[in-house]
Amino acid sequence: MINVLLSSYDIHETWAKDTITPLLHKDMKVLYIPFSFDESDMKNHEVFDKRRKMHEKGIFTAFHYYDIDDIDYVNYFYDNHQSALSKIQNCDIIFLTGGFPDQYLDRLNDFDISDTIRNSNKIIIGASAGAMIQLDNYHITPDDDYPTYQYQNGLGLVSGFEIEVHYCHSDIQEEGLKRVIKEKRLPTYTIPNDGGLLIKDKLIKTFGTAALVE
Description:
By secondary structure, the protein is α/β, with parallel strands linked by helices.
């Protein structure tokens, strides 16, 4: 399995191209799973689809740059476990969208596809929440959506380190980094919107402006 952890969808930008280009080719199939929305955005298919299309634009822009046009998604309202399973088995790249990481994992579990993703041996690319849930455990720094600092369980695709997504040197992020390093005692990486991590064969490579906290 190859894992890419990002804060944005912009893998077609200059900061990412040298790292991403060797991973992709035009015959690949991408499957994105837009289950990361807040509960209020999952009331019916119309609301879900409106939110999904906001993510779709960035995903299409990124992969079209690499001449990849075969892009599908799992529909929360019209797909089920079996159809989602089939789509996962037939793709080369699974893209995990940004949003609410704890709710994201709950919905993957509801569809009973978490184990399938863990054992898929696909390229897994995730941005923001889609990066966080790839970890076995992750922290959430307080923001408008999450008022308190907290730890959550992830998919367990990668382990042994922590990340701070959307890193912009804010005071609250700095406090969150100090706390996670003190409490978890794990290597911790900052991932700004123009940075990412590539994990292959358990080796971690930073690219763009992502960095290991010293």
